[in-house]
Amino acid sequence: MVEHIINVMLLPDGRIRKDALSPFEVAEGDTVRWNFDNAPGLRVEFHDYLPPSGVLPSSSAAQGLFNPPFPPATGPVAGTVAVTALRGLYIYSIFNGEGQRLQWEIPLFIAGSFVANFGGIEKPVGPP
What we know:
Number of domains: 1
Distance between the termini: 10 Å
CATH architecture: Sandwich
Mean pLDDT: 81
Helix content: under 10%
Number of helices: 0
CATH topology: Immunoglobulin-like
Shape: globular
Low-confidence stretches: none
Number of strands: 9
Order of helices and strands: EEEEEEEEE
Radius of gyration: 14 Å
Strand content: 25-35%
């Protein structure tokens, strides 16, 4: 079991600094912790799940990565990866205290005009 720490720091323009590691792989029993260094009141929200098959994302499975389910809380938050979590990519965003989705200094990826301003945690296919 591994503890993964995501240190979220905001730039002066309100974007999330590039060194908030994402995406990364987890296994059952791992803990993921978000620390908000200079920005109290932020919250993490999982909103999509992309299975290994690559079919369209499912928002219904997005909350299934952690046991117990990930709380919609602000401040430093953490979760333990559930044994029952499906393999695939879990997609999350970080919101400020006013409910606005924050942008990343460097997006996860850019495809045409689509800018992926979200984070990802992957439970890989195959043995952990």
